[in-house]
Amino acid sequence: MKKCKTHILKIIAFLVIAIGFQLGLSGQTISAPKYPIIPTPQKGIYYDSETHFTDFTIESNDFNTEGELLKSYLTTKGFLHTKDGFLIKFIQKEIPENASDEAYTLRIDEDITITAKTSKGVFYAIQTLKQVFRQGKDYGILPQLSITDWPAFKIRGLMHDTGRNFQSLAQLKEQIEVLARYKYNAFHWHLTDNPAWRLESKIYPELQSDDATLRGKGDFYSQEDFKEIVAFAAARNITVIPEFDIPGHTDAFRKALGFETMRDKKLKPVLLNLFKELLSLTDAKTTPFIHIGTDEVRNSYEHVDNKLILSIMNLLKKHNREVIVWEEGIRIAADTTSIGQLWAQHPLRKGHRFIDSRANYVNHLDPFAGMSRLFFQQPTLQKTGDNNALGGILCVWPDDKVSEQRNILKHNPVYPAIVFYADAIWKGKDKDYPKYWAKLPQVNSQEFAAFANFEDKVIVHRDLFFKGKEFPYVKQTDIQWKVIGPFNHHGDLEWMFPVEDGIKNSYKIGDEVYEWSQNIAGATIHFKHFFGFPALTNKKSGTYYTYTNIYSPEAKTQDFWVGFQGWSRSGGRRGGPFPNQGQWHTTNPKIWVNNKEIDPPKWKQPSLTNNTHEIPFIDEDYFYRAPTKIYLKKGWNKVLLKIPHGGTSWKWMFTCVPVNIDDDGNVNEVPELKFDPALRIYSDYYYDKKEEFETTPDTENEIIFLGNSITDGGNWKELFPSMNTINQGISGDVTDGILNRIEAVTALQPQKVFLLIGTNDLARGKTVSYIVQNIQKIIKTTKEQSPNTIIYLQSVLPVNPNVGKKFSGHKSNGEKILELNEELQKISSDMNVNYINIHKPFSDKKGHLKAQYTYDGLHLSEKGYLLWKKRLKKHIK
């Protein structure tokens, strides 16, 4: 069998390839396909069919190198290159839709056709082909599709600071391979910094001396190593941008060569010689850019005469190299040609070309909220690049010492960042969304759907292409929280607020009423972002609480990632100081699951101060320490977190998400756990009963008793043994609660529903009009979803003044109950439902609940239920 098509459903049907739904771009919101492509191609369709093959033939013509690349890939997968196998054709031709030399078309049908003007385009077509390839039992599988694709920006890169922390050639090559897969074309190599000068100099070997090297003594790149990385990257259409960062960040340089200050007159020829040596290692075609730094010149001994910088620029330009400098950096009026690489929020220089690295420093990103920032970021603040806006580069600055090289990838979400940023820098964004740089969009919004759809694609790629690699990301868009606060703790981070005593709709403290937020999605929530990006508050301190409910089908001990206030791998352990044993953080946050407080980890290096550059991170963040083990009961589990802020803390945030981690460190979702998207403010009992109702088998002619504890306490099957009665009362329920679970009623299409609700609403301060509106919604929803159901609306029962302290909120509601019942009778008539007045037979002469029918002043005794039965008997029949 050479090829065959299977699963052909409707050849005409197609999926628009704007699969991730790029904001503002053409396309439609649809779920991620079986074969997600990242970055999303500019144009194209998937056809609803597949092609299978067992052997293949490549016609490469003018693209022999790329043909051999694809041949090698397929043969390593076990497929034979034969004379008359599944045909793969390479055609050299201009792409009419776009003039980029990286553009390509890819068509998979009866055969494969790749069209491109240059080898770069063919290479990117092959990367796309590799992403959609699937391995069958003894055959290859490809989706049928047609794509036309090109990049929005000329420069798409990743920067690594190896001056501070060395990385092996193997580790750099691994990352370059990942960059190639996602169509990046630049590797910015920061080779020098205060701790070390990492590129071998044969002119000045002192630069690699142990005396000059603060970290990783003896760790440097030989000139042959440098050439090897340049060649390795070039074979993958990635340009290396080497950087010698001067005149700041030069402690190692000055120490090695004995310069006390960068104004030393002997310094100029040394620097010129070092740049000449760098230029000699590679040609201008392969390495067209040289970066000279110039940022953060903050000490007097780092200041230089601008003529020195100009002389270096002129040297590089003489050798046909483009000069890149940091912005903010040294600005020289005579410099009219340099390319500015923007960082932080620094503006570009008018008239200069620029590369955007603002707001995308990976060492400051957490694995969850940080990915929202990269997804919603518009590189260069333009939809596409032009002659000035060249593109963007992700930057990894692990300023603090690491104990081993691999920790750079463990402690920083490098691989997730590459994948999430790929769409923005290749596909382009119609709009910049800084309001989502620190938080996900509102649930159910178009922007939220866009992120969720792209997230689905990322999860597929994680599982296909990152096995055994550090990819600390799980699906987070199905995690939802309620948030309340910030409460004023008056400088006392341990101040306890009433939320810790129980979940209620609202809390009144002094003259201020606090209510829970709308649902907020995400595994990480920033209350106030440390860089000032829009979050939930602008207050400088306070205490937030947040909660959710998690359903587990069985009792189990589950791994969770739990963290508070976060850490930046930068600038002296930013996020410190580190907590003492027994603390999650110095701000004393807490987490409870089912009212049981969860203990923090046993820290390996507690009580460290902020400014400890030379002490490596070990277990400070949740994603590189052992997960927290939390016992979940069968059914719904309440998760409550307390997150104070103040004192010396820099960040105000939390992370909480269940994870599965295998023996190889691969991270996955926990599919059997379910987060409650409703997140109303009810008891654990409510959620357990709601789940029970939702799984009730459908029978015939059900009669449902719907309400709160008064209904819940009735044994309706004994009271009406010949009827198919179902008790859907829940102790403590309110009208909002009935609305939240009404579908469990209407799903059964019952014969009759007897509704009694409202007394708890009054006790919790809800107005009569609020209760009436909700009851109208309950009736309307029931009629719409179960039109044959007969509805009986019952009056609210009276309350006895001797009701105990536990139910004291009901004691003074006698007049409000009468007012409510009058309104219920009116809406019964208006909405054509049956009204049953059960208030009157249960009332004494003063309108109170008769003592013989209650045991606590609110709930009914056995005699009470028998009287109620008597009032309902004729309606039941």
From TrEMBL:
Signal peptide: none annotated. Residues 705-865 form the SGNH hydrolase-type esterase domain. The keyword Hydrolase applies. One of its GO terms (molecular function) is beta-N-acetylhexosaminidase activity. It is an enzyme of class 3 (hydrolase). Residues 35-150 form the Beta-hexosaminidase bacterial type N-terminal domain. GO terms for biological process: carbohydrate metabolic process; glycosaminoglycan metabolic process. The keyword Hydrolase applies. Keywords: Glycosidase, Hydrolase. GO terms for cellular component: membrane. Belongs to the glycosyl hydrolase 20 family. This is beta-N-acetylhexosaminidase. It comes from Aureibaculum algae.
